[in-house]
Structures are given as C-alpha cells and as structure tokens.
Design brief:
heterodimer; B: about 375 residues; mainly alpha; BHLH domain-containing protein (chain A); IBH1-like (chain A); transcription (chain A); HLH_DNA-bd_sf (chain A)
C-alpha cells in the first residue's frame, strides 16, 4: 500500500501541490464568506432589522440633538444614520467598515486631488485609452460605494449588492421616522 | 468455451466503441454500473487468457484475477501489464483496437470487475485520475488522448489532493470504467466531502486547460453575483450585458443616496420642531421658535432642490402662524386645517423624487401642527 502512493505522484507531484497551496486559501475564504454573504443580504429585508435600526437611529438622534448646530443639522442626521447603519452591519462588509472609520475632513480632500490629476499628461492618456466602458463604470461604482475604490469586479459587486440592500432598508426606516415625526411625535 | 469467447468479443466490441467515441469528444468521466460490468466479470478470465497468449515471446506473465489484488500491493503490477501491452506490440497481435484504446479498455475491463466489489459512488472521479496518472507515467505523454486526459487529471488533481492520503490509497486499488455521458451533468460537479475547492468540470466541447477552467469558474461566479444584483435593482430584468446593468446599478445607488440625504434633511427639520414641542413652549420663547424656522427654510436651498416656490410659501406660512398664535381661541379653525394638513402629509410621505415640492410643502404645515399641539 505504501509503495503505491509515492508511485502515483512522480511527475505531477510538485505542480498540483503548488497549485493546491496557492488556491486553497482563497477558496476557503470564498466558501466561508459566500455563505455568510448570502445570509448577509437577506438580513436587510427583515422587519426586525428595520425596527432595530429605526429605534437605534432615534436614540442616536436624541443624543446628537443636544450637540447639533443649526447649520449642518441635515448633514449630522445623515452621518448619524449612516453610522448606525454601518454598526448594524457588524463589520462584515467593507463599506460598513469604511463608513465607521471615515473622518469628516476626508470629504474636502477629494475635490483637490481630482483637479490635480487632470493637469498631468493628457497625451499619454489618449494613447492608452481603449475605452473599456465597463471599467469606467466600475470605477464610478467604486466611488459611489464607500471604501470600495480599489476592488476587483466580483468583490465590488458583492459589496454593492449588500450596500443597496442596506440603503433600501435605511430609506424605509427613515421614511417611517419622518412619518412618525410629522404625524405628531412624542407629545 | 465458444460462447464465452463470443461474449468476450461482444464485450470487447463495446469497449472499443466506447473508447473511440471517447477520443472524439472531450472527456467526460462517469462511472457506469451496468450490464457490461457483469459481462466483463464473467469473461475476464478468458480475456486474461487472451492477453497472456498474445503477449507473446518471453512474456510469461501470470495474470492474476483482479480481485486478488484488492488487498495487496501488486495492483500496480497488474495494471501496468495491460498498459505496457501496447509498447510490446500488443495491439498488433490482439488486433482489437488502436494502441491507446487497447490500453484504455484494458484498464476499463479490469476496472469494471472491481466496480462490483468496491464502493463506486464516491470514488469515481478520483479513481479516474489515479488511473490517468498511471497511464501517463507508464505510457508517456506523447499520445493525444492522454494529453486530453492529463488536462482533466491536472484540473481534478487539486481536488484529489484535498481528499487525504487514506482515501487515495483506497483509490489506487480501484479503477474506473471510462464511459460516455450526456451533457446533462454540467459545469460545477458535486462537492466532495471536504469542500476545499470549487469543483469545476469541463463542459462538452470546451477547453480543459486549467487556466480556462479557472477563468470559466471566475466568470460564472461573476454572473451569479450579477444575477443577485439584478434581483435587487428594479427594472433590470430586460437589460442584458454588464455595461447596461452597471449603468442601472449606478443610477439606482445614486437615487438611493439622494433619497437618504433628502430624508435626513427632513428629519433634521422635524427634529428641531419636535424638540420644541416636547418642552412645551411658553409664549416668551416664541421668537426663538421663529428664529429656528428660517434655518429650516434655508435647508431646501442648500439641497438645491427645485422647489424655489416654497420660500415665499414658507414665509407666508410663518406669517400665518404668527397671526394664528396671536389668536389662540381660533383653535377650531386651526384644528380643521391641521387635520387636512396631516392627511396631506401622510399621503405625500411616500418618498419619490418627483414630489419634492409637495413634501416640502407639508413640512412647514407639519411644524405648524406640532406647535399647536405643544401649545395645548
């Protein structure tokens, strides 16, 4: 028995083993994250999740009400809502982690960087531009979803789907809150 | 004896057919437990006899029954013999099939017997691989059919390595019967016990290069995720192609983000008023309330929403409110107005971008409402 096993693997020994080591780890991660991810998207559709979100948001809003300035109240509400949403994601997705770690100053830096790039070497860009329409759109999408600028196609799509589901839940919850507030609130 | 020989010939004919047909197509390996198996089992001794006879000069090899090899180390020997046959000019003497085919179906015949004795369900792919590797190593990689199988073997080999050594040992004892199958069993094959890898099968008429297999797996993964997105984004069912889909996705994400921002503004506006209503304003704080109101009025401007007409409206409503507050006994009129307003607010609270005007219109009325309630 022992003699047969080494016999079987003379030539292909190094090659597939090497491949195996290379491919094993990413595949394992894929398997685990894929199952987690599927369950992850559906959580945003449940009523329970929405209730949890809206209650947490109301609490956070009450807390921030005291410290809010009148000029940027909307932005603060927006930020609070995004942060609560990201907390609810429990750090499983990239965009949620990016939202939680983002600083307020980061917003103003974006415009300056974009302006500088255009001044540099337009001639070279024209030569190398093959108009990969899909690539452009991927970049745009990467900019839209927080923290997903330099992601591969498949990962970006994953993040986008989770982000869209979360956003939909956020819209539903905030609509409910506005209705609640508009109808009279806690009088 | 005669009838046995006849049965043997019929068996061999089937074997030939199978192997030649196999060569034309790209590989597809599935174990087949049918009648030919039993037929083989019965005719094998005769077949072995044939081989023994045809191996010719100086090749007095004692071919044992396959079952004998189950528990022993001699299996390798046994398998090697028929495989080595072609090299000895075996095919010329036997005249049953081209060399590779002979080797193939030798293997297949031996395997078919063992199928009955061993558990085939799980081991099929691995067995094929083991046999293919043996074939590879013994007969050399120069042959076209072996090359094709090698690719498959390499592709599947990763899977085998993951199974563990114990299983591989058992695999060596058995072999597979190579047979055709319809293309019903496509692409991703069964997940074996330890799902370490994504198992991919080459479809009929497709390249079996390991690179192309990996690429195909990647592409299918991507298309799966795109389908998932299609379910999320409304109105994407008709659109095919990545670019169109991505356009829709981008639009949808942008619209969702705009909605959220819009709603947050609304909540901010409502928030300030709710705060005040809870505290139960006395008359003295009225100027403070008014002071807050222009701040709320500024919000639509900041948002850049197309509701420029609102500002004069809001100012009017402020004046209205001032007037109304001066005359608290007129609550009845106010109450009726507020009822209609609240109805309007509830109906218009369905957030669409087409109705920013109406919703903003509701807002000052909502504030007005709350002030009223707070006042009581």
């Amino acid at each position: 028995m022992a003699s047969i096993v080494p016999r079987l693997e003379p030539a292909p020994d190094t090659c597939p083993e090497f491949k195996r080591r290379k491919r094993r780890i990413p595949n394992e991660k894929l398997a685990s994250s894929h199952s987690q991810h599927n369950q992850g998207i559906k959580r945003w559709r449940t009523q329970r999740e929405q209730h949890i979100y809206s209650s947490k948001l109301v609490q956070a809003l009450r807390r921030s009400r005291l410290t809010s300035t009148s000029s940027s109240a909307a932005r603060e509400v927006h930020d609070t809502a995004d942060r609560v949403l990201a907390v609810l994601a429990k750090g499983t997705t990239r965009w949620s982690r990016a939202v939680l770690t983002a600083r307020k100053t980061a917003r103003h830096k974006k415009a300056k960087v974009a302006a500088n790039i255009r001044l540099r070497k337009p001639a070279f860009n024209r030569e190398k531009r093959k108009k990969p329409a899909v690539q452009k759109k991927l970049k745009v999408l990467g900019r839209l979803v927080p923290g997903c600028r330099k992601l591969s196609f498949s990962n970006l799509i994953e993040e986008t789907s989770d982000y869209i589901a979360a956003l939909e839940m956020q819209v539903r919850a905030m609509t409910a809150i506005t209705e609640f507030l508009a109808a009279g609130g806690p009088a | 004896m005669l009838h046995r020989l006849e049965s043997l010939e019929s068996c061999t004919y089937d074997g030939m057919d199978m192997t030649t047909r196999l060569k034309r197509k790209q590989q597809y390996y599935v174990v087949q437990n049918n009648n030919p198996v039993e037929l083989c089992a019965s005719s094998l001794p005769q077949f072995q006899g044939l081989i023994g006879n045809n191996l010719g000069s100086g090749q007095m090899v004692e071919l044992k029954r396959p079952e004998d090899f189950l528990g022993t180390d001699d299996f390798q020997e046994f398998v090697n013999l028929p495989v080595a046959g072609p090299e000895f000019g075996y095919s010329e003497k036997l005249d049953l099939a081209p060399p590779e085919a002979a080797a193939d179906y030798c293997i297949s015949w031996t395997s078919s017997c063992q199928i009955t004795t061993l558990n085939t369900a799980v081991m099929k792919e691995e067995r094929e691989d083991m046999i293919l590797e043996k074939m590879e190593s013994t007969t050399g990689s120069g042959r076209a059919s072996f090359n094709k199988r090698k690719a498959e073997a390499v592709a599947d080999h990763k899977r085998n390595k993951g199974e563990g050594e114990g299983e591989s040992e058992v695999k060596t004892k058995c072999s597979t019967e190579i047979s055709r199958n319809s293309s019903k069993e496509n692409s991703k094959a069964s997940e074996v016990q330890k799902p370490d890898y994504i198992h991919v099968r080459a479809r009929r008429g497709q390249a079996t290069d390991s690179h192309s297999l990996a690429e195909r797996a990647r592409r299918e993964k991507i298309s799966k995720k795109m389908k998932c997105l299609q379910d999320l984004v409304p109105g994407c069912n008709k659109i095919t192609g990545k670019a169109g889909m991505l356009d829709e996705i981008i639009n949808y994400v942008q619209s969702l983000q705009r909605q959220v921002e819009f709603l947050s503004m609304k909540i901010a506006a409502l928030n300030s008023s709710v705060e005040l209503s809870v505290e139960n304003l006395p008359m003295k704080e009225f100027p403070a309330y008014v002071a807050n109101f222009p701040a709320a009025a500024k919000l639509p401007e900041m948002a850049g929403l197309p509701c420029f007409e609102l500002n004069p409206l809001q100012k009017e409503s402020v004046k209205c409110m001032l007037n109304e507050s001066m005359h608290p006994p007129q609550t009845e009129g106010i109450a009726s107005a507020s009822v209609s307003i609240s109805e309007q607010s509830l109906s218009s609270s369905s957030m669409t971008q087409l109705q920013p005007f109406s919703t903003w219109n509701m807002d000052p009325q909502g504030l007005y409402n709350m002030y009223n309630m707070g006042f009581h």
